[in-house]
Amino acid sequence: MSKTAFITGATSGFGLAATHRFVAAGWKVVAAGRRAARLQALVDELGAGNVHAACFDVRDSAAMDAALAALPAGFADIDLLVNNAGLALGTAPAQDASLDDWRTMIDTNITALVTLTHRLLPTLIARKGVVINVSSVAGVHPYPGGNVYGGTKAFVSQFSLNLRSDLHGTGVRVTTIEPGMAQTEFTLVRTHGNQAASDALYRDAAPITAEDIAEQILYVATLPPHLNINRLEVMPVSQSFAGFQVHRS
Ligand code: NDP
Ligand code: 8X3
User: Fold this and answer.
1) What is the pLDDT of residues 33-80, one digit of tens each?
2) Whole-angstrom distance, CA of residue 130 vs CA of residue 248
3) CATH of residue 9
4) Which domain holds residue 175?
5) Residue 182 CB: number of other CB atoms within 10 A?
6) Does some domain include residue 244?
7) Pocket residues: Cβ below 6 A from ligand 1
8) Residue 204 domain-assigned (yes or no)
């Protein structure tokens, strides 16, 4: 019998690629996101028996609850939660950053992620399921302008490890995937729609692709049930680390 994945952020990037990859591997997918037309296109392309569209803003807990209550038979028994919806907004230093942007990142990357996890834990425990949380290298390695975005992803990584501790003995597995630079709509969103900046970042850098991460998510989700990858940090070969900065008077 096929398993069911609940994938947030399925309208673009990692989540979209993962939806395609999991359906190709024989899974059913609850595909979540705000852009209804993109979700409907996924259902049309991959089939209503394989994909259920869950259209809601993850920051709206009432809408989240309604979407969960509306899961049809065949999509309600969730074996895998992929908490992938998220965003960075801005690259300015903290002192110049927008507080509204900070709050949006916290609401989306942290509050919504823990809310959906809390809602689905009973089902995941009953089914000895898997939680895969999409964090980032930005949650591990500091960089200028990473401020709240990196902070939200550090939360995701630590929350995931703590979740593992609490779920000890339940058979539920928890993994954080921490990608580096990947070409998706991420930079377009981060720069508030600056396509030239997005193109410039990825040009000639051979970044990670959405399909690369989808493959990693499937790999983690289909490990033998006695194995748990705690953290999986993945970078393109073209990206590495720079040294500390020193200010001289
Ligand atoms: P994209 O911008 O391509 O995709 C982001 C997805 O998140 C979209 O499907 C979007 O759907 C969804 N989303 C954002 N806000 C909300 C919301 N309020 N409610 C519901 N859905 C929402 O970026 P990526 O695929 O790159 O990003 C996926 C995850 O990967 C994010 O958590 C990001 O932080 C992380 N990441 C990305 C990296 C990169 O370099 N690209 C590297 C490391 C981590 P919609 O707009 O339709 O609601
Ligand atoms: C996205 C990766 O390096 O742009 O999380 O912060 S990075």
Assistant:
1) 999 999 999 999 999 999 999 999 999 999 999 999 999 999 999 999
2) 49
3) 3.40.50.720
4) 4-179+210-234
5) 21
6) no
7) 8-15, 33-35, 57-59, 84-87, 108, 134, 136, 179, 181-182, 184-186, 189
8) no
Is the model's pLDDT at 1 over the cut of 90? no
Looking at the whole model, is its pTM more than 0.85?
yes
- The one-letter amino acid at 29: V
Contact 133, 112 (CB under 8 A): no
Q: Is 149 noted as a catalytic residue in this protein?
A: yes
Distance in Å, CA 223 to ligand 2 centroid: 26
Of 12, 107, 114, 176, the residue with max ligand 1 atoms within 8 A of its CB, to mutate for a pocket test, comes to: 12
Tokens of 165: 């501790």
Question: What is residue 217's predicted lDDT score, i.e. its pLDDT?
Answer: 98
Q: Which of 138, 146, 85 shows the shortest CA–CA distance to 111?
A: 85
Compute the mean pLDDT over every residue in the chain, rounded to the nearest whole number.
Answer: 98
| Token pair of 45 as six digits | 């392309």
Distance CA 211, CA 227 (A): 23
Are 214 and 169 in contact by the 8 Å Cβ rule? The answer is no
132: helix, strand or coil? strand
* pLDDT digits 0-9 by tens, 159-211: 999 999 999 999 999 999 999 999 999 999 999 999 999 999 999 999 999 99
